[in-house]
Amino acid sequence: MAHAAQVGLQDATSPIMEELITFHDHALMIIFLICFLVLYALFLTLTTKLTNTNISDAQEMETVWTILPAIILVLIALPSLRILYMTDEINDPSLTIKSIGHQWYWTYEYTDYGGLIFNSYMLPPLFLEPGDLRLLDVDNRVVLPVEAPIRMMITSQDVLHSWAVPTLGLKTDAIPGRLNQTTFTATRPGVYYGQCSEICGANHSFMPIVLELIPLKIFEMGPVFTL
Amino acid sequence: MAAPPEPGEPEERKSLKLLGFLDVENTPCARHSILYGSLGSVVAGFGHFLFTSEIRRSCDVGVGGFILVTLGCWFHCRYNYAKQRIQERIAREEIKKKILYEGTHLDPERKHNGSSSN
Question: Residues in domain Cytochrome oxidase subunit II copper A binding (chain A) (predicted)?
Fold first, then answer.
């Protein structure tokens, strides 16, 4: 989860998120260099003694500041498109979970091996145990196996919502009447938090998502297979 | 980002962020690139000044040198970092396979020994 006043990305829990962090570092370095150049140009503008009012054109400069931005955009676009296509790769998911957004909770359906369906509500502050996270913890977590490709089918029963888990690099809109799909593979066990990411009414900030990723052996002993 | 410190643990010092957003300490290759860029900037700018005695133009050369050297070091370092990550991933998976399949017909070492004896 994010800690207070965190600005940067959370640590990656999936290979796609690792790629996104790498891309973010790459883009940020380019942005830094452009900002540095602009600051220098501003400094020159403020300190110049040049007062020639007869300058009519500057062909070379105009050529440079047309071609250079095009090159920069290509340098940013190529890795971006690479990751975009990587997220669409079909990787034969082991498990399919349906996630349905409501005002203001999520319903999860594990229907591959049985009929496990449950709702996931945020824990109200009065019901928090010591150590629980305010506005993040839920009554029923989504329990999933580690290192297994998982397909999430996301939709909504009423208004737009968005199912997001930053540490996995996931954010998929839940649209009524439409099924959106996202796949991921978690690389390490743990509890990971996300929040609804599309404005959906009064309690939009109070319908979090909690994934509990556990080893496959322990997952197989759980209610998904035994119910 | 690292987890927040537990009570009793020493506070983490704030990482250095250039221009307020580039975290030089926690971004792989950033510190290395900026340092080499700064060195390149000083060498290029000062060298140009020594030859021409033009201050403003030398500053321009210095800034240009900083940008080019930083970018060059950045791409070189990131390329090597990506290669290293791929090798680490392959090594991790081979270790996992070795532990999982040791003693069975799928043991990678048995396959390798078999092919080398042939």
Answer: 92-225
